[in-house]
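It is worth pausing here to work through a concrete case rather than discussing structure prediction in the abstract. The textbook approach is simple: state the sequence, then state the predicted structure, then interpret. We follow exactly that order.
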Amino acid sequence: MKNVFRLPFVVFCFFTITIPMHAQWIQTGPFGVNCTVRSFAFSAASSGTGTNFFAGTDAGLYRSTDNGTSWTQINTGSTSISVRALAVALAGSGTNLFAGTQGHGVFRSTDNGTNWTAVNTGLTKTDVYALAVTAKGAGGTNLFAGTYAGIFRSTDSGDSWTMVDSGLTSTWINAFAVFPNGAGGTNLFAGTNGGVFLSTNNGTSWAAVDASTFRGLAAYAFAISSDGANLFVGTNDGILLSPNNGISWNAVNSGLTDYGVDAFTVVGTNIFAGTASGVFLSIDNGTSWNLVSAGLNNSVNVLTSYGMDIFAGTNGNGVFRSTNSGINWSASNTGMTNTSVYSFTTLSINLFAGTTNGVFFSTDNGTHWNATSCTEYVDATVTSHASSGSGTNLFAGTNGGLFLSADSGTTWTQANSGLPSYPWVTSFISIPNGAGGTNLFAGTSFKGVYLSTNSGTSWTPVDSTKTYNSVQAFAVSPSSGGSNASLFVGTWYGGVVLITNNGTSWITANAGLTSVANINALVLAPASSGSYTNLFAGTSSGVYLSTNSGSTWTAVNLGLTSTGVYALAASTASDGSITKLFAGTSDGVFFSTNNGTSWNTANTGLTNTYVNSLTISGANLFAGTNHGGVWKRSLSEMVTSVENFSSDLPALFNLEQNYPNPFNPTTSISFTLPSKSFVSLKVFDLLGREVTTLVNEQKSAGTYTQKWNAANVSSGIYFYRLQAGNYIQTKKLLLLK
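Step two, the predicted structure:
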């Protein structure tokens, strides 16, 4: 997408290039997975230099500023809100963006989606499936909301609503169309589960359109031909065309092999129709249709176009884009995911992630992800050497039991022999059995612990008389080994249990944990070289530490602002000593460099802060989030990066002059934010070309200082621009070498 960067007396054009920041989390995927897209909208960027592209999904709202190449989640209040409809309306000198949601009514944003306000006064039905905007006769706009129980109208930008359903005999509203009536007025069409209705008086009254033709049909989508002469409606039984403003209709389905039409978009004389079988194209005003879905192969819920690009919002696979009239499609999902990641494991050079949509693997340290054939809801993944020593098995614990792969996830078979009916395997660990083989322990939800001594071929319960039924985590000291290995079991309602002698001996280890019996995570970390004596427990009440194998526990939560801890990980130095301890919480990632004595946040760039799982692979820390996929960050950044800001909140946005100026080769740029904002700080040369991106992330209110090292840049005049919400400021700096 082209942006225009304006300097005094000169206008320059340049292409915005996304450059990942060094010191921040980067979302790595899997993108598009489990992301169902329901609605699209475009609006002009607040600076007037570009266009914002919005996608409403079942996991909230996403915004793209680069024509769908990458996406950032923005929330109407919660990531769990399904955004079913979007609309844009002029408001004085600005623009209002409206989002219709499932169960939460209508939200309004006046700053291109950065902040939202619920506007539901009088809106007695909060499942909103369609939105439309029409002009008011005396100026201004009317806003219409279609629900499952009728139509509501607002004449004051959503501040108040009134039901307008006189004559509306079918009240489940799927779509609207605004069509000029040829006499200077507007016809408003409503597609319902019982046909099409028309209002010629801004919703005051409605009348069924050609009731005999639409009898038994549900109308899901509308389109208007580029010349404004024809109106199309997509139904559950094909496409109907009206050449006379809805008075009469004709079926136009030649070549249409899927008659369930859910979406339309028009590009010039090309008309595109979205169905469960993909996209169909008509180049002859609907007379004939051809399937154009190479690379798509997805059920399409919504279509839109920008210039010559066509976008398809799919059912469960995010956004796809075509740049050649639908002949070919490719995923356009970077940053867009609704996948919850619950576990990680490594096998050779592969990193595996257990998700709500099965097991995914990466062969390039998390840069790209691919799906395996295991598509279950996966809670736990783990590797275990086969008992014969001739290979490696990968196990996936799911809500349907245990699955085994002997070929790095290519194929999977169930491994549930001996497990209880409907086993939900939530945790898993492999330890030596002291006789040259391996014992596998599987923790289940409310079914206790099970043991396999034959690589998962069969399972037996471990001391089923115990009451520690819901098992969430395991930890074993690698220095113990043999038949006397200490296996710690984290449970819900039962705290921590110590198992020895291959499961024959059970000891409760809860002193100091009586009020926090729900254990979500366990990790053993060395207190000194080669000595794994520190045991950490992540609980619903923070992190606890035991230095005596669980005999006693002490809370270690200083600086930990979120007490719901769901994951733990520890990195070690070459001498075996612990260097960093990480905690994944409902408020992001925290780290400690002093065995939990104090904690610091490590959330820069992490827009989805509900962390279910953590793992360390190579030089990186990976975080599995709730509905946000996998995120990666360099371990070294967690100490060297500065994420401090002033505790005294500023009253205004402000961009300071860099200091020193002139400079060689480093300078500091300070700015203040009075409220939480998405911040972009970029440097440009005299021709308006982007030199570097210094900041590109959401930040809390405060004062910040960002350094720029221009060692690799030639001497000269440069400009740096801060954009935070609607605030934009540009200043000049001088590099002298």
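Step three, interpretation. Residues 546 and 553 are 5 Å apart (CA to CA). The first strand starts at residue 2 and ends at 7.
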